[in-house]
Amino acid sequence: MDDTSSMIKHQKSCQTSNKNNQTEYFTIKTYFRPKISSSIPRTIKQKITNAAVELVSLNNRAFELISGDGFINFAQTVLDVGQNLSNKQNLNIVDLLPHPTTVSVGFCGIGLFHLNDNLQLYVFILGCYFYDRDNQSSNQIQQFVDSKLMEYHLTLDDSKFVVCDNENKMKSSFKDLCTRVGCSIHYLNKQLQHCFTTDIIDKMPVDCDIVQRMFNSIRQIVSHMRRSHKQSKLSRKLQSYSDSRFNSALYTMDVFLIVFDELASVLERTYMNDYILIDKGLLASVCLFLKPFEQAIEQFSCDTKPTVYKVLPLRQY
């Protein structure tokens, strides 16, 4: 009897305590976010799937594109922006996307080459840095490089050499406090360009008249064939000459040499005179002469090796 009475009193006490403290108890979901995401309607999911398939199909991209971290970050950003702009009407996604010509990101790569007293060479890649200055003036470039060198307690002085390309802003950036060494590939390409397109350098004749006349005739024929859309009748597509392309003269003449015999049956009478003036033997000799230059340019430019891995670590910017 006494035990039963004690249990009744205990039960009433617990019920009173539960009523007073019921607001203090929370479910586990209050403390931990569920791992499963909120349910998405099947129709919306299917719509996104169809759009993803169209994306990779129309743009000729691998389907793995949409599973990459970059695309996921991009899609999440667009989704967040869309939620912020949900109250605006007549909003077109084209207004949000940047135009390819406006996307300009600059990087500055800095490496250190050191020769010790025994003439042993040590190479250190200091980094490839995101260029965050307002412009690319010579003063800004120099300050940017100086700031990165200071992180390693390095400074430029007359005893140090700076190797960079031959662009005017780079020349101006490192004309003081150091000795600038130009890019070998630019120097080499400039010499080749002068051989075929320049008459006088520093008031001195180039003396490449025979080769230049042949090259001018080739350029005229190539220009005509590309303009008249007759090169479809040739086994190879003719290449136009471009000053901005390294060793472009070789590309133009090498393809021309391959289809040389085919041109006789395709050319109009107006351009036959230029064609007859071209010595095929001389053309073959010039192309053979330029081959080692092309090999050297490939070595200098590293166009045959993948280099994107040097940029990818900069993702933190």
Number of helices: 12
Number of domains: 3
Strand order of the largest sheet: 1-2
How much of the sequence lies in strands comes to 5-15%
The number of E-state strands comes to 6
Order of helices and strands: HHHHEEHEHEHEEHHHHH
Give the rounded overall mean pLDDT. Answer: 78
Largest sheet: 2 strands, antiparallel
Structural class: mainly alpha
Query: Over the alpha carbons, how many angstroms does the gyration radius reach?
Result: 35 Å
What is the helix fraction of residues, given as a range?
40-55%
Cα separation of the termini: 78 Å
Q: Describe the global form.
A: flat
What ranges have pLDDT less than 50 throughout 5 or more consecutive residues? 28-33, 306-317
Q: Which tags fit this structure?
A:
317 residues, mainly alpha, Arc Repressor Mutant, subunit A, 3 domains, two-stranded antiparallel sheet, two-stranded parallel sheet, disordered C terminus, RNaseH-like_sf
